[in-house]
Amino acid sequence: MKYARLKLALLALGAALALPAAAQAPAKPLNPARHLAASGDDIAVGVQPRYLLQTQYGNVVTNQDFGGQFQLITFGYTSCPDVCPTTLAEMAAILEQLGEAGKRVQPIFISVDPQRDTPKVLGNYVAFFNPRILGLTGSPALVRGVADNFKARYEKVQEPGSDQYWMDHSAGMYLLGPDSGFVAKFPYAMPAAEITARIKAQLDATPEPTPREQQAPAGAPPRR
């Protein structure tokens, strides 16, 4: 367990150090007590997991485009200094721990900072953690609508007189089932091993999809 936590910490640190300088703009809230990631927002009531966004490959996908697969989704942004690298490192660890069964889970990172997170920026960012992670973005209005559907909160925080800003956002991961329906939300503080166990239980209880159901979304790279 200690080794696993150390591995996650080192991966998250490596992600932060590997990012371009432009992607490391100030991202810490003025008042840490206001950080939405620490707000206890771990109960998903009324979640409507619908989205229509663009991937890092340029194609448009919806929550209905992953027939037969579970979806593991988190919200964040590439300039995030701590919560997002940690979450994506955990997401990568979960896929690794699931082994072959992990192919039945599509990992997704939805940016809440469409102004800076272009498809190219998203692609470079998520690839650091795992090449299977899809980065999704869209217009500010589309992203806001998707966040509202998932009951995910975020806000732009900018210092007076400065053009630099950060995004204060809630954290955690959402699990959608093969029918793209909401299954569970895993809070930010939940250990990756526990999330893995819960996802595995869902996989074990769900029949594997047929080859027809496993078709990848149009324009997406082949699944590994």
Automatic annotation (TrEMBL):
Which intervals of the chain are annotated as region Disordered?
200-224
Query: Disulfide pairs?
Result: 80-84
* Residue ranges that the Swiss-Prot or TrEMBL entry lists as coiled coil: none
What is the annotated signal peptide range for this record? 1-23
**Could you confirm whether the keyword Metal-binding appears in this record?**
yes
Q: Which domain of life is it from?
A: Bacteria
Keywords for this entry?
A: Copper, Disulfide bond, Metal-binding, Signal
**Gene3D superfamilies associated with the record:** Glutaredoxin (3.40.30.10)
**Protein family:** Belongs to the SCO1/2 family.
The molecule here is called Uncharacterized protein SCO1/SenC/PrrC
